[in-house]
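HUMAN: Please help interpret these C-alpha cells:
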Amino acid sequence: MKKKISALLVAVLILSVLSGCGKKEEEAYSSPSFSNGSKTDADASEEEDEDASLTDALLIASYSDATVSDASKVDELTATLTDAPLMGVRTEKVYYNTLAEFKITLDTEGWEFYDAAEVATATDSTTDYINNLWYGYTSPYDEGTTYAAIAYHNESGSSIIVSYVNPTEYNMPDYSAREYLEMAAGKYEGLKVRTATFVGDKYEILDVPDEQSNVGRRTQFAIKKEGLIVVVTFTTNNDYKLEDAVRFISPLYY
C-alpha cells in the first residue's frame, strides 16, 4: 500500500507559477507531487458542508439560479457538445468542460487561454501530445495527470488551470477527490479540505493563503467524475482577487 500511495504522490499540487506582470511562464511546471504519503479517512463531520469564510463569496461569484428562457439555446449547446472530447472544447474566449459540466468564460480584458503549444511548454510536453489529448485521439485514462485548459492574466500573473488526475494510473482507482486534496493539505499548517456546492455540484476545496504559497493564493476545487479527479486550480496574486477569477466559471447548462 505504501508503494501505491507513493506512486500517487506524483499527481497532486498543480504548480501554477504564471508569475510576472504580462509575462508567460518560461520554465516548465514542476511535476505535481504529494508531500504526505499517509491516507486519512475523513470523519462524518468533515464530510458535511462547512460555512467556510471563502464559500459565500465563491457561491455569489460563481453560481446563481438563472435559467435560459429560450430552451432552444440549451438544446443547441447540448447538441454541439454531445460528441465533445473528454478533455472538453474551447473557443478563443470560452472553455467548455463536458466531464464536470462547467464552462470558463474569459470576458474580462487581460485574460487569455494558452494554446496547445503554450500548454505543452508549460507542462514540459509536446504540442502534438496536447493536441492529441484535446482532440480525443488519446485519452486522459492513459495518463496520470493531464491538462485540459490553462488561462492566464497577463498583468497580475494569476491563472486558472483545469487538470485531470487518473488514480487508476497510480494503482489506487478508489481514491477520492477529498483524499487527493487532503494529501496536498499535508504540506501546509492548519489547512483543511472543505466541501461546498460550487457551480451546481459538490466540490472539495483546498484554499492555500498567499503567505503559505510562493506563487500567490492558490485555491483548488476537486470533484471525481467517471473515475477521473477533475481539478480546477485558481492562483491569484499581485492584489488580484480570487472572487474576480471565480466569476469566469459557471455551470455548463443554464
User: Anything to note?
Assistant: The longest strand covers residues 145-153.
